Amino acid sequence: MDNKFRKSLKFSFSIAVITFVLAAIFSIISSSVMSGVVWIIGLLIVLIIVFIGVIFDMFGIAATAASEPPFHAMAAEKVPGAKEALILVRNADRFASFCNDVIGDISGIVSGTASAVVVIQIANMLGHSDGSSMQITLSVLLTSVVAALTVGGKAVGKYFAVHSSTKIIFIAARIIAWIEANLKIKILASAAKTTRKSR
Rounded to an integer, what distance in angstroms lies between the CA atom of residue 108 and that of residue 114? Predict the structure, then answer.
């Protein structure tokens, strides 16, 4: 029990560090990009960030809903991505934590920050100063739209994640397999070692 608790604390600390680093990187990139574009492009960037959060939320839920047998059959036939899919399903808790908590939460924070920049850009374009009633109205309106798209998108994503978990995880696994093969970035190396040790 103590060993499992220590592993859980170690993983939680790792996730916290990764979240800190990724949040800083995404915030810097989004702020830099947003400051140099017109408001319509900024709004498009906000929608893309929301879309990324929805997709990763769907991946995380699909991992917890998927089962191993379909991927065992694919792995036996040496289908590309099947091995990675098995690793994702066997480490569903960690994969879901990364997708839902790390990427999902970062997307929510960054989209909120980016929305604020878009509001300021629109307000300046319309000739309204900071703190004006127009800027406040725009802020409330855009924040509400982003929240509605995020929640609504995740609701739809959850439906597909539960009912098409095998297909979704296989898509994620194929993407990871391609990245590992072509970009030489080891994404599932540590997870694979953990899985083998547990067996």
Answer: 10
Question: Hey, is 185 helix, strand or coil?
Answer: coil
What one-character DSSP code corresponds to residue 103?
I
pLDDT tens for residues 82-93?
Answer: 999 999 999 999
Phi, psi of 68 (to 5 degrees): -75, -40
CA distance 149 to 51: 9
State the Cα–Cα distance between residues 37 and 124, nearest whole angstrom: 14
Say what the pTM is: 0.83
Q: How far apart are CA 68 and CA 47, in angstroms?
A: 34
Q: Is the pLDDT of residue 103 over 50?
A: yes
Domain hosting residue 86, numbered range: 2-198
Structural domains counted in the chain: 1
> How many C-beta atoms lie closer than 10 Å to residue 61's C-beta?
23
Distance CA 148, CA 145 (A): 5
